[in-house]
Design goal:
By secondary structure, the chain is α/β, with parallel strands linked by helices. The chain is built from eleven helices and ten strands. The structure holds adenosine-5'-diphosphate and magnesium ion (MG). The site of magnesium ion (MG) has 2 residues, from helix 1.
Length: 280
């Protein structure tokens, strides 16, 4: 297995608060590796450590114990920080905080310019990135003319123009409407099909269900790790972890309770629709 990220037994504690009490560990002995080219969803209840984990993946935070390797580079090595950030790009929840220019394509160019890439190549990278997120036609628009979902796709294009291997997104759809969320998921699937490693932090179970692999965090530790189908089979465990089930699974279980013969492992809408159509 070709691993782009290896997390070896990391722990992390934020500085003590004003009350002087040592806080709980935000990450507590976490080990995890991410396969190159995979699409991984990370979920878990509020405060379980998802954002803290995300910030460890491109050296915004450094573990207090253990280590994080990105393409074999230790994030604690200050000399490697820019190389690591070039490989792993981060997209955050609020699209407005990530855009600064009055023209979308200038925002897309910003990160690549800071890497010192020659301007002819930047032009090429920006166009390619805008096309990859389906925003090429909107490239001249200012952020105030774009929807939340479009702004997030511009933010992703800005990361793409820097040429990362891996994109980490921390609840990028939290502020979007359903249409914006669906478009963003489609963009991420396309980027993944094109070879990018995608790590998507989300509390939407329907989004997590679209990943190859699903990780559930609890109190700074890994609580569950498997394919979405494997994870969603453990409905009791998910409830203990204060997570919801995708709507299709809830509906399927109600239909079963009402006496309909629906298979136990339906997860996606199409599967449920087929199962219903197949009823005698
Ligand atoms: P999640 O993203 O899953 O909601 P976080 O990684 O943000 O979880 O938080 C994990 C834990 O660390 C929580 O207990 C949270 O209160 C704490 N925490 C997060 N950010 C900070 C911070 N900047 N300072 C102090 N504590 C923090
Ligand atoms: Mg968070």
């Amino acid at each position: 297995m070709d691993r782009i990220i290896e997390i070896e037994n990391i722990s992390f504690r934020y500085d003590e608060g004003e009350d002087g009490q040592a806080p709980e560990k935000a990450l507590d002995g976490l080990s995890l590796s991410i396969e190159r080219g995979s699409f991984v969803a990370v979920t878990g209840s509020n405060g379980s450590g998802k954002s803290t984990l995300a910030k460890h993946l491109n050296a915004l935070l450094i573990p207090s114990e253990g280590r994080v390797l990105v393409d074999g580079m230790d994030t604690a090595d200050e000399e490697l920080i820019w190389e690591i950030r070039r490989r792993v790009g981060m997209v955050f929840q609020n699209p407005d905080n990530q855009l600064v220019s009055s023209v979308a394509e200038d925002d897309v160019a910003f990160g690549a310019e800071n890497l010192g890439i020659p301007s002819a190549e930047i032009r090429e990278r920006v166009d390619r990135a805008l096309k990859a997120v389906g925003m090429y036609d909107q490239r001249k628009k200012g952020a105030h003319l774009l929807s939340g979902g479009q702004k997030q796709r511009i933010a992703i294009a800005g990361i793409l123009a820097m040429g990362p291997e891996c994109i980490v997104l921390d609840e990028p759809t939290a502020m979007l409407d359903p249409r914006g969320r669906a478009d963003l998921m489609e963009t991420l699937k396309a980027l993944n099909a094109d070879g990018k490693t995608i790590i998507l932090i989300t509390h939407f179970m329907e989004e997590a269900a679209l990943a190859d692999r699903m990780i559930v965090m609890d109190r700074g530790r890994l609580a569950m790790d498997g394919s979405p189908r494997e994870v969603f089979k453990e409905s009791e465990r998910l409830k203990e972890l204060r997570l919801e089930l995708p709507f299709t699974i809830e509906l399927a279980s109600r239909l079963r309770a009402a006496g309909l013969d629906i298979p136990e492992d339906v997860l996606y809408e199409e599967e449920l629709a087929k199962a219903i159509c197949a009823l005698k």
